[in-house]
Predict the structure of Zinc-dependent peptidase.
Amino acid sequence: MDDDTWSRVRARVRWIGALDAPREQRLRALGALFLRQKAITPIEPLALDDTQRTLLAALCCLPLLEFGEEGLHGWSQLIVYPDAFRVNRSHVDAAGVLHQWDDELIGEAWEDGPLILSWADVEADLDDPHAGFCVAVHEMAHKLDVLDGVLDGTPPLPRDWQRAWARDFQQAYDALVQAVDAGGEVAIDPYAAEAPEEFFAVCSEYHFSDPALLRDSFPAVAAHFERFYGPSPSA
Ligand SMILES: [Zn+2]
């Protein structure tokens, strides 16, 4: 990863430009490791140059600044669509009836398969870095969550911390679900109320892009993220 490429990435991604020197160095090392370990596959007509590949690697490694390179375990491919992509879903319900439908996604993280991103949405996040969105961080949060074998909103943590995390996240999640069910306005993206793992992933986006909103809404969750992800580059 040469200096010119890195300075172009740094100029494009304001979250990286805001890191202090030791954390930026750490991110650069993680990004280099990502580029060695992962195949980055653009889907036509998208093509990605070296700077764009380095940018994606660095962005995916932002949530690993404190957690470290173990966060890259268990998968080997980043697939990048030009824009939002359609996936075919199916589900057999309790009555044995098969339901099939199409979903339009901007990102997806398979349990032990690829991480998938929409390039147009990555760019939109970078254009407006304090709007509360970062699809790369969202999908990486799912990858961290599932490292212990269960996608439940809790990444692998030391035992005491894990207990406190589970308690605080459950409380915050319940309050959000209650507010959404009551039809009231909620400050964060209501998609977070879908499931505990979505709550973790959506709140992770706020940690990087709008930490003040997260702190106002869920101070205990914000405090766990300060420790888990380190200080927000948008603080
Ligand atoms: Zn998600």
In short: The pocket of zinc ion is lined by residues 138, 142, 198, 201 (CB under 6 Å). The CA atoms of residues 87 and 103 lie 5 Å apart.
